[in-house]
Amino acid sequence: MSIVVAKCTQCGANINVDATKEASVCEYCGVAFITEKAINYYNTTNTINISNATINMMSVNVDNLLIRAKEYEHSNEIEKALEYYNKILDVDATHSDARESVERIKNTIPICSISFLSGLFNSGDLILTRKNLTYQSKKKTEVYPIETIKNVKRLDARLWVTIIEPAIKLNIPVGNIQEAAAMEEAINNLIREK
Q1: What are phi and psi of 137, to 5 degrees?
Q2: Taking all residues of the chain, what is their mean pLDDT, rounded to a whole number?
Q3: Which end of the chain, N or C, is surrounded by fewer C-beta atoms within 10 Å?
Q4: Do 2 and 12 form a contact (C-beta atoms < 8 A)?
């Protein structure tokens, strides 16, 4: 038995019919009808043209979306967190928590990251975000804000990064020319944006 909504072909009343039966009788007017015709009649008379209509959507609870976004961010599911923060901004473009969270996440997502090997015992990573260049080795971690970087130049697979404050020049043997070129380009793009 498969009960569906149909419309009586005689009186037009909405009725429930068993779609597995070929015919039935309207409970309102008592006229017999073919089930398939009554179902089709219901579907065609209840079709609405919405091409030029304004559609009001059910309201969204932004607080629930914010809770979900924060849960995803705390569990380090960054893409899902961004998705939910953006859903909030779709509903309320001025929502300060969502705006600040999107900006904070974008500033911490690595734009470029490369590993380096310097000698037998010194290896590490160079990680670039929109805000910082992080030099991370087994011995130390140094974070340089983008605004303190004067320039970066590449010589083969070596990067020379000139830092304004403190006044130093980093010599980083990347080992891979393509990775060094990509990092050089990414840093220079951020310097130009500032």
Answers
A1: -125, 175
A2: 85
A3: N
A4: no
Q: Which residue has the tokens 């990509």?
A: 182
Q: What local confidence, expressed as pLDDT, does residue 145 receive?
A: 93
Kind and range of the H or E run holding 108:
helix 96-108
Centroid of chain to Cα 28:
53
Tens of pLDDT along 23-65? 989 898 888 888 888 888 777 665 566 677 665 555 678 888 9
Q: Look at residue 162 and give its three-state secondary structure.
A: strand
Tokens of 158: 């070596």
Domain locations in the chain as residue ranges: 3-45, 62-108, 112-193
The domain defined by 112-193 carries CATH number 3.30.1340.10: no
Q: Measure the CA–CA gap between 8 and 29, rounded to whole angstroms.
A: 9
pLDDT of residue 119: 60
